[in-house]
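Q: My labmate handed me this sequence with no annotations at all. I'd like to see what the chain might look like in three dimensions before we decide whether it's worth expressing. Could you predict it?
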Amino acid sequence: MMQFYFAPMEGITGYVFRNAYHHHFGPADRYYTPFLSPNQNRRFTSRELEDVRPEHNRDVPVVPQVLTNRAEDFLWAADRLEEMGWEEVNLNLGCPSATVVTKGRGAGFLEDPGKLDQFLETVSDGLRGKEIRLSVKTRIGLEDPEEFAALLPVFNRYPMERLIIHPRVREDFYRNRPNWDVFAWALETCVHPVCYNGDLFSLEDIQAFRERFPRTEAVMLGRGLLAYPGLIQAARDWLDGVAAGVPAGEAVGAAAGKGDGEAGYRARLGAFHQEVLEGYRQAIPGDRNVLFKMKELWSYLAFSFEGAEKPLKKLKKAQRMADYQAAAAAVLEDCPLAERPGFRGF
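A: Here is what I predict for the chain of 346 residues:
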């Protein structure tokens, strides 16, 4: 059965969000944290530390992600995470941000396969005999998809739990379509378990991917899940229907019915929203900062509804918590659910 992983989304998918999502939807098989970036003093920031504390992630299958191009810093972080009880640490080779790439980190690290090879050799030696395991999330190159032909043999040389492939180059950022031809080659060539990441925004997208790559055991979802929190459950319902012999098109239609019915799904959305809001109010000082976080979430969650333009406009303009809550309730309780929810771009 296909597994579903929740992608790290900086500023959104921290522990408050993860706990609420895990309680009310899916749940995902793994949640990857927004990246931790070990500093020169070999310390996590207080925000990073709060996000990976085991007590903030009870019963949630979390994988911390680390962003660095220094093997000794990665090993230091892996040791600290192992001490906390984490069993897997993920290396970020996908972040396309200019401030990251210009320092040779994230997708910028892909520019030098030789240096990456040395890094992975040192990390693999350092992790030998430890309980914590390595996984890698990568793009397919910096500027040209052909770069992956030199990168994949490097990944194949070292032990890792899985290779998560986002088949775009850094220069794409999140534009253009993911390169499924390169992913197909990687799927046949990689010696590690492979997870796909990239533009699976709706149930129909997952269906199309599954038809092209039926042997792929795991996919990572990000913007699609923020826009349609019920997407994992809908995909599982569809896969169950196909396994039971329901024609694929009919199975999609049945799964899009949101399993527990419209009223039940709407109630879950409301409970999820309330738990996120209350969690932020406990974790973040000041309603202004909480409202900023909630509005960022709504930039995606808005795709779950139709005809919600007026209350969403009030929500975005709200400066007081009471005004925000009234606008959010108007959307959650009164606006029709989207018939085919999913991220459609900004």
